[in-house]
Write the structure tokens for this entry.
Amino acid sequence: MELFKVHQNLVSRPLSDIRAEVFRQLSSLQLTVPAGDVAITVGSRGISNIPGIVKACGDWLKEQGAAPFIVPAMGSHNGATAAGQQAMVESLGITESAMEMPIRSSMEVVRIGEVRTGPVFMDRHCYEAAAVLVVNRIKLHTCFSGPIQSGLTKMMVVGMGKIRSAQTFHSAGAAAMKDMLLEMGQFVLDSGRILAGLGILEDGFDQTAELHAIRPAHILQRERELLQHHRHYFPSLPVSDLNVLIVRSIGKTYSGTGMDTNVIGRRGIRDFEDLDRPRVRIIGALELSPSSQGNALGVGNADFITQRLRDAIDEHKTLINTLTTGDMDRAKIPATLATDEVLISTIAERYGTSRWMLIPNTLHLEELLVSHDLCEELSATPGCRVETTPIPLTFQNGRLLPST
């Protein structure tokens, strides 16, 4: 099979001096920073430049007379253990030596409120600190739509609430999550523990584009505005209908569901409305990102996977994360084929070779490979440039080579 390379003209706006922007944003709030311990939240996603952002936050807090420390804040991820979550942030380059700050990882929580689906909790280290600086990327969520989705509020609710608050949040069901996020988030804000939020916006090339420091009282409103602004950057597939989508790599590095549901058009939540575009008939996934450390939540949104992807799955980590969300279909193991080559040839034989697209992952969509029948359509699509030289799919020991 031969495919053709397509370049998408995504929005590019990388910040030139991240450290200076962190200092500028935080200083602009004119905060009264307590002299005691101040927690900085760090999640498990592949946020660009996150070590530099966190280090700058810590340095700024030190200049204000505080004693900053890092809290791994990621709900039920990485086995829902203190050691697992610390290992996750360290794998991102956020170590005590590099950050010049301690990491305090625990699954212990303090109850701070009650909603209809259960209690609301806060990480014990955050609760006992003089204040918390909430740091997270603001983006579309993979489970639900709403005025606030994935960002500072979700970090306060699910990240800082550990697995206990994550269970309360997800037990509401996808249809009610947008309301539950606001309700639970208000409890966290009312606790008086939040010093400020630092929201991160990334451009179409997954680079840090904007940083926004926000006072606690303004987080819920400001995050709504920033989510809408984020849509300007968000990359997507340039076609609405595909017969086959091949995704080289899936995993937590790229999305909470391995493949961003807003990109592939599948939420994978039973009895809940799905996205109306794009419409993709068959999805094949080739590997699980090593930095996902075995968590394959979302693998069930694929139709076919390779044996090497299946072998890379840590079933315990994936089960813990999936049980917390309650969306068990997302962890179902798809039909498994021996190699990349067998997977691609099997799909081609069964479903034909028209309207194919191959992408590296759902986070990096600047370069795509498409079948010949899509070339004319994409040549007429604003922001797309199609190369006319075909690229043959080549394999070594059954694995698709990087050159394609």
